[in-house]
Design brief:
Layout: H1 9-14, H2 23-31, E1 37-42, E2 47-50, H3 52-59, H4 77-93, E3 97-103, E4 106-114, E5 124-132, E6 145-147, E7 151-152, H5 162-172, H6 177-184, H7 188-202, H8 207-217, E8 227-228
Parallel strand pairs: 3-6, 7-8
Antiparallel strand pairs: 1-2, 1-5, 3-4, 4-5
């Protein structure tokens, strides 16, 4: 008989055994917590569960009938392709992936977790999402890799051209027109023209309002380079 395996005191100290918890109670606590979006989908993008917070984050309404439907029934082909690839990777690697993305003009952080099914088909994931504001970069689980999205849905800012988004972001970070002109290698007159166009399209009055919009969305200059998602 092999001798019993010794576990160092340090390992014993760091090991946390999962408590014996009623799964139904745990699920209720998670899915009913205000501000936390919870959804379950499978490798084909079939929507198996979506709580009210997730409905609002991704569809802006709780009156969404997801029964028997797929991600593709609510989102563009580009969005669906990226999400299905993310789900497939989570299932293949059996570890979570996290993504920060801007959708419908809202900054959202989502983590896709593999579900340890007790029996086949072993193809489901749970997606935990929450809205963020400002330049908050917290909330990524230590075990999850943070991946980048190729797409963006700027919501009301979709009315702006790419150059106008760049100008709006820099002005929204509190920069002056001359400073923005220097960074973008344009004349102050050109930047002022963009600023006037932005104000008209977004119906904002003064730079302070623009700062509030850009700060709330947490937009950075590189976000202007992302591909725009078509209306879903």
């Amino acid at each position: 008989m092999s001798p019993p395996t010794r576990v160092s005191s340090g390992a014993q100290k760091n090991r946390v055994d999962p408590p014996q918890i009623d799964p139904a109670s745990l699920w209720a606590a998670l899915s009913q917590t205000k501000g936390v979006g919870v959804s379950i989908t499978d490798s084909e993008g079939r929507l198996l569960f979506v709580n009210d917070t997730a409905k609002v984050l991704f569809s802006e309404s709780v009156d969404v009938d997801y029964q028997g439907k797929f991600i593709r029934d609510f989102h563009s082909a580009e969005y669906v392709t990226e999400r299905l690839a993310m789900i497939a990777r989570v299932l293949a690697e059996e570890r979570p992936l996290a993504m920060r993305h801007i959708y419908r003009g809202k900054k959202i952080h989502s983590t896709v977790w593999p579900i340890r099914d007790a029996k086949p088909p072993f193809s489901r994931v749970v997606v935990i999402s929450r809205g963020e504001s400002g330049h908050d970069h917290g909330g990524v689980p230590e075990t999850a890799e943070l991946i980048d999205t190729e797409f963006i849905d700027l919501g009301p800012l979709n009315a702006l051209t790419r150059r106008e988004v760049e100008v709006a972001v820099l002005l929204g970070h509190g920069m002056s027109v001359p400073r923005v002109a220097t960074l973008l290698h344009r004349s102050p007159k050109t930047i002022q023209r963009h600023k006037d166009s932005i104000s008209k399209k977004l119906d904002v009055h003064g730079q302070a309002e623009l700062v509030a919009i850009i700060t709330e969305m947490g937009l950075e200059l590189d976000d202007a380079k992302l591909k725009r998602l078509p209306p879903s």
